[in-house]
Amino acid sequence: MKTILVVDDESKIRDVVVSYLKKDGFQTVEAETGSEAIRRVQNESIDFVILDLMLPDMEGEQVCQAIRQIHSVPILMLTAKVSENNRIKGLSMGADDYLIKPFDPREVVARVRAILRRTDEYHLLADRLAFNQGELIIDSLKQQVFRDGQPVNLTPNEYKLLLVLAKHPQRHFSRDELVERVLGYDFDGDSRTIDQHVKNIRQKIEGDPKSPKYIVTVYGTGYRFAGGTT
């Protein structure tokens, strides 16, 4: 049974979300502050985080960034902020999805299910893929990526995007194809979200993100993986 951490300083919102999650078969734990959320992720077995952006002790983006430094657990952000810049900022910090308040709690559960389903679908691949004499390694058993022997902290969606591309080297993928494979058919955001994920991955795996050798832009189409296996 999956355990969901619900982070919100409004008890009424937590109560409603928790109620619907429990009805759908999830276990839940709660946090009122960002520091408490980070502590729970560090010390407990958490499978998913629902994170409000407006917290009393720190901004949700800061909490998301702190969690990403210690764990690749999927994160769904909740916010009253409606601008596209806020959404992009949240995704760049490592969030997997973004839901605007007020929301239907049934949609929260549906988003959680969809993200977990996509995460589970990418537990398959050859045990290990290595590129450029082991400079970049994708270990599917550990679901971990290494660059120069050091672990790379990718979000679940970043890992899945890299995996899709690396499994099909030299194949051109359009943004819409990548949205379907990584974010799911039910994703209703802009396909340019893929660009932000690619930018994040490049910052983490490329020696020179401005001149990438792994994830290459195919102008007018999308992206392809150019690294050769060794």
What's the layout of helices and strands?
Elements: E1 3-7, H1 11-23, E2 27-31, H2 34-43, E3 48-52, H3 60-68, E4 75-79, H4 84-92, E5 97-100, H5 105-121, E6 128-131, E7 136-139, E8 144-147, E9 150-152, H6 156-167, E10 173-174, H7 175-183, H8 193-205, E11 215-218, E12 222-225
Parallel strand pairs: 1-2, 1-3, 3-4, 4-5
Antiparallel strand pairs: 6-7, 7-8, 8-9, 10-12, 11-12
Helix pairs in contact: 1-5, 2-3, 6-7, 6-8
Question: How would you describe this structure in keywords?
Answer:
single chain; alpha/beta; Rossmann fold; Arc Repressor Mutant, subunit A; 5-stranded parallel β-sheet; 4-stranded antiparallel β-sheet; 8 helices; 40% helix
What is the N-to-C succession of helices and strands? EHEHEHEHEHEEEEHEHHEE
Which architecture of the largest domain per CATH? 3-Layer(aba) Sandwich
Quantity of strands, as a count: 12
Q: Cα distance, first to last residue?
A: 38 Å
DSSP helix count? Answer: 8
Mean pLDDT, all residues: 85
The outline comes out as globular
Note poorly predicted spans.
Answer: none
Q: What does the main sheet amount to?
A: 5 strands, parallel
Helix content, binned percent = 40-55%
CATH fold naming of the largest domain: Rossmann fold
How many separate structural domains? Answer: 2
Strand order of the largest sheet: 2-1-3-4-5
CATH C-level name of the largest domain:
Alpha Beta
CATH superfamily of the largest domain: Response regulator
Sheet-strand content, in percent, reads: 15-25%
